[in-house]
Amino acid sequence: PLTVYQINTKHRDEIRPRGIGRTRAFTMKDAYSFHATEDCLNETYTKMVDGYVRLFKRLGLECFPVNADNGTMGGSGSQEVMTISSEGDNEVGRCDKCGYSANLEVFPCEDPNLEVSTQKGKYKKVETPNAKTIDELVEFFGVDATKYAKSIVYKTDEGNLVVAVVRGDREVNEIKLRNILKVKSVELCPPEEIAKIGSYVGFVGPMGLNNAKIVCDYEVKYLKDFIIGANQINYHYVDVNVADLDDCLYADLRVAVAGDKHECGGKIDVVRAVELGHC
User: Which residues contact 73 (CB under 8 A, 6 or more apart)?
Assistant: First the structure.
């Protein structure tokens, strides 16, 4: 194999610069390798990751590789070398049973595989004055956040509007959404553009929208008699079931949290960490 590298000042147009690890200009070591075979590539990749771990351990840092998002570089997989720190700008999930580790940006969440409700048409529209957020709705209805399906509108780099739906107590994983859609980037849709799909900020719901692509997290598929936005200001639907929703794509869309189950049956621990290297 042939490997070339440089150590130089690098500029990267970070969307949200934060801390000293996510500035727009920084000193970086870049290396690129060229191979005749896949086996050769895999051997060198492993050496690179191991090299990072050895290097940082010599500097007195306890570090470990975790699975990570490939980003705009593409490829079949990548790993970040992390060190645990309360000041870290990354969150890492680790399974307490099998040891699997990944950046929370890509940590997989399992499909619960529960019973799906086939009931349809039971829902009704309820006036909800000044209740937009999940916290406000919890106070208004007096039911737990897990009884809501939260809908957030995103705009892709291609200009398409997409509605991402997660359970009320969950957060949309924008990296997973981007990968599901196979686009370069997604960002929150400006309020004035949400009208294109026939809805309003704070009252978006996955029922009765105009030509909108809807992506729901696996957990939404198993909700029963839940609450969604009615796509009308100051109104929500109650007692909704998944059979009532517009056509949806169900996928792993949520951010993993501590206590979630991993596919092996273990539980996820979450720690803050600093990225030291990325292969």
Answer: none
Q: Where are the alpha helices (DSSP H) in the chain?
A: 38-58, 134-141, 174-181, 191-194
Q: Which amino acid is at 107?
A: F
If you average pLDDT over residues 229-251, what whole number do you get?
A: 96
Cα separation of 150 and 205, whole Å? 8
Q: Any idea what DSSP says for residue 75?
A: S
Which residue, chain included where needed, has tokens 């009931």?
Answer: 119
The residue type found at 210 is: N
Are the C-beta atoms of 160 and 175 separated by less than 8 Å? no
What is the β-pairing status of strands 235-240 and 226-229? antiparallel
User: Of 67-76, 109-118, 129-138, 143-152, which range is least confident?
Assistant: 67-76
Report whether 235 contacts 203 (CB < 8 A): yes
Q: How far is CA 101 from the centre of its chain?
A: 16
Neighbours of 36 (CB within 10 A): 9
Rounded Cα distance between 174 and 186, Å, is 7
Buried b or exposed e, range 51-67, using 16+ CB within 10 angstroms? ebbeebeeeebebbbbb
Burial annotation 128-155 (CB, 10 A radius, 16+ → b, else e): beebbebeebbeebeeeeebbbbbbbbb
CB under 8 Å to 15, separation ≥6 — which residues?
A: none
- Quick one: CA dihedral 189, 194, 199, 202, positive or negative? positive
Q: What is the pTM for the complete model shown? A: 0.89
The answer for residues whose C-beta is within 8 angstroms of residue 8's C-beta and 6 or more apart is 27, 28, 30
